[in-house]
Amino acid sequence: MNRAYNFGAGPAMLPDVVLQQAQEEMLDWHGTGMSVVEVSHRSAAFMELVKKAEQDFRELLSVPDNYKVLFLSGPTRAQFALIPQNLIGKKSSADYIQTGIWSEMAAIEGQKYLTANVIASTKDDAYTTVPQASELNINPDAAFCHYTSNETVNGVEFPYIPDSGDVPLVVDMTSSILSRPVDVSRYGIIYAGAQKNIAPAGLVILIVREDLFDRASAQTPTFGDFAVQLKNESLYYTPSSFSIYIAGLVFQWLKASGGLSAMADINQRKAKKLYDFIDQHDFYQNPVEKSARSLMNVPFTLADDQLDATFVKQADAANLKALKGHRFVGGMRASIYNAMPEAGVDALISFMQDFAAQHG
Ligand SMILES: *Cc1c(COP(=O)(O)O)cnc(C)c1O
Q: Ligand 1 within 6 A of 95 CB?
């Protein structure tokens, strides 16, 4: 077998032990004689799986009791439309902080349901930084304030949690959730698609403060009404059972690995190695302001972009996969989520060293 180091931004690498367990259980899950994707989502065994996954997730993030956890299906970006509909209440606008392509897209979609006020944007800086906390002027009458904690494409991460006062703070945490501890009590809603740092695509996990379930607009589709999902314990419709199953295994793996503070230490170390290497070599560049650099997604360019295709091809041959940057920003991007072993980062750095020596 030839397991690669997959630096793709999503779908992303999963821990070997998790995939091995899934493989072992595939034909006969917990003595049912069926795989987990064949059993009824309303069977006691599957409902137990969902409950356990939720418990472990809550434990990892120390989710306070006044927050509910929902497992939803579909694309992450469905939330760009569903959150405005669920939170609009009697308000007519929401505030958006723009620091990259995902938060930009969230505001454009939100505008279909309310007045989406972009209260701060770093677009003029080519999304290489985040606004200062003091620059954020949140409208006290906004239904919510939305931001993206880690911009997956641009490699920009907030080093702080914005202070939105009494306005519910909503965060798209898709590409940084579970990479470090988080103070959940600062948020109205945390949401995250699974395919970056949790599980296969198809699952979106929401953490919603319990007072926010009472304000959905009448036009909110039933399947996307958070209160309906809550009442049905995340099983209103047939869920993406395989993703929830893998998520549950990943949560157990994280707990066995020391939880989120242990992950934070490892992630800091992995990212620091890679950024230090890039900063020390003129052949490589990372454009992001140091204080706002992502721990999870490290974009970089080569001194000569004519070499990009060769870099990707040779890296691929060296078992370092999916390093091509997003089509919007070009260059390379190394996504180093929880499941990327430190040895993978070391292998990348050593490859980059050789490549620069050959071509620099
Ligand atoms: C990947 C990503 C999305 C979009 O995910 P889809 O499931 O493809 O809609 C949204 N936000 C962030 C921060 C992402 O990284």
A: no
